[in-house]
Amino acid sequence: MGSGKTTIATKLAHRLKMRYVSTDTLIERKENRTINEIFTKSGEDYFREVESAVIRDISCLDGQVIDAGGGAVLREENMAFFKSNGVVICLVADEEAIFERTKKYKHRPLLNVEDPKRKIRDLMAKRAPFYAKADCAIDTGKLTVEQTVEEIVKLVEAERAKREAAKGS
Q1: Is residue 167 part of a domain?
Q2: Under 8 Å between Cβ of 134 and 90
Q3: Of 30, 82, 117, 161, whose CB has the highest number of CB atoms within 10 Å?
């Protein structure tokens, strides 16, 4: 949340001539309501169930850049689905950068709390072991969007080469 996933994923998809896919958009279409409404009326557990179903359905498709919500990795099966057919890149930023990027948006249910900075810290700490399972991480607070996209392109190409070499062995 607030790491630049949507901006970077859309530009990356364009650069790689791939389809951009947002799990949150697919969830909202499937449920015919916003993420905020899902959290408010059905709870986070329900949201995570729907999210996992969407991830299962899209992760087997080729030629796409998937923008998944920051909590998607909390379920082992989601990470397994992502890794089965792609490279998992974790975009990170420090607490202050995330706060600055998200403070004006009210559509983020997990940050609609009295102390959003504390919530950001708590979420970062809770999710850190899950994010560590990504194939790589990039700090978006230190790079421009274009630099981040170029870094990801290099990482994806290196990962593809590594996987092709492993297949040939």
Answers
A1: no
A2: yes
A3: 82
